[in-house]
Amino acid sequence: MSAVIRDRSRSVGQSLVQAATPPVVRWAWAGGAILLFILFVMARWFISGHAVPTAPGPDVLPHAAAQFIFWVQCVATVLGVLFFTMFVIRPWIREGHMTTTGMLYVCWLTLFFQDPMMSYTSASLLYNSYMVNLGTWTLGSMPGWTSPNGNNLPEPLLLIIVGYTIIGYSLCFPVLMMLNKIKERWTGLSKFQLATLGILILIVMDTIFESLLLRTGVYAYPGGIREITLFAGQTYQFPMSEGICYGGFTIGATMLLLFYRDDRGQTFVERGLEKLRVGEMSRQWIKFLALFAYVHLSMLFVFTVPMQWFALHSDPFPQGYPSYMINGLCAYGPNADQCPGPGVLMPRPKNNPF
User: Fold this and answer.
1) For residues 72 and 218, is the Cβ–Cβ distance under 8 A?
2) For 162, which of 80, 145, 238, 265 could close a Cys bridge (C-beta 3.0–4.6 Å)?
3) 257 by DSSP, 3-state: which?
4) How far, rounded to the nearest angstrom, does the alpha carbon of residue 40 sit from its chain's CA centroid?
């Protein structure tokens, strides 16, 4: 009998402790851990001396393509400054503190960290190494990285950091406006139906934008499964796994976070923030880290992890990629000169590079 009473007391005590810890605090702890991990990997990358530009190789970039690449990086940088001002600076000045949409913008700026992880297990993403780059923070810096020569992936610093906000976070807002208009027109639609429609719209938008950009030779998705790939076999092919997992689910996760805000404009990850007995600065940091966790974990579970399966089951790369796109990433096969594909041996390091 006494054992039963002790068990019940312990259960009640644990419930009280859990009830006293608002969801926002748990999210914030997760966000803090993710942020520290990112800082650790990036610092290790710089300290190790791997932060060096990737050499384009023997193929020469045509003049017109070089001009386009120069200007697309300039335009992306300008748009990044304008969007940062619009989403972060102006609302901050107006409200006296960083707003939820401003914090989410900053969180999306940091998603560049997960970008090369598409190729964590097998090369499936290419960038043009004529763009400003320092290689990438992968092989030798990222724990468990197995794809050969991963550090050769030339992450375009002027493009990719703001790219996740231009073709990403910023798309949430026109879609939310569309959903509000649709709700006014068809009042019988449930929130779930509207949310599903919003995800479908995001898939279409991302597919259109990326399909056009892929034709410019800025980047490529060579590791697609051709049965579910648009323009399959072309150097500008677009795997719909990208459109669904990134356009629909990754962007959609943030769109849903904003769509389901309560009547106080609070997202579900912020619940319990008002109960915390802390100063305003601490409250802001807790909120930011909570949102940071949501943005990174949502991308991890609906994009980065599923893309490993698609990468490991990809068809052969299309023919015709120049050296400044391949960048030594096709180090597969018996002679270490093949690209990934069915029947191609996939080397793995004897020891974890971490």
Assistant:
1) yes
2) 80
3) helix
4) 18
Helix (H) or strand (E) holding 250: none
- Cβ count within 10 A of residue 227: 8
pLDDT digits (tens, 9 = 90+) for 57-104: 999 999 999 999 999 999 999 999 999 999 999 999 999 999 999 999
**Strand bridging mode 229-230 / 219-220:** unpaired
What is the phi/psi pair of residue 60, to 5°? -95, 135
pLDDT in tens, 127-143: 999 999 999 998 878 88
Say which residues have a Cβ less than 8 Å from residue 284's Cβ, sequence separation at least 6: 97, 98
* Residue type (1 letter), 103: M
Which H helix or E strand runs over 239?
strand 238-239
Identify whether the C-beta of residue 241 lies closer than 8 Å to the C-beta of residue 294. Answer: no
Beta bridge pairs of residue 332 = 338
**Closest by alpha carbon to 113, among 329, 300, 351, 308?**
300
Q: Give pTM, 2 decimals.
A: 0.91
Q: Name beta bridge partners: 219.
A: 127
Cβ neighbours of 84 (radius 10 Å): 17
Domain ranges of the chain: 24-48+61-128+156-322
* Residue 244 C-alpha from the chain's centroid: 13
**Angle, CA of 136, 79 and 56, to the nearest 5°:** 35
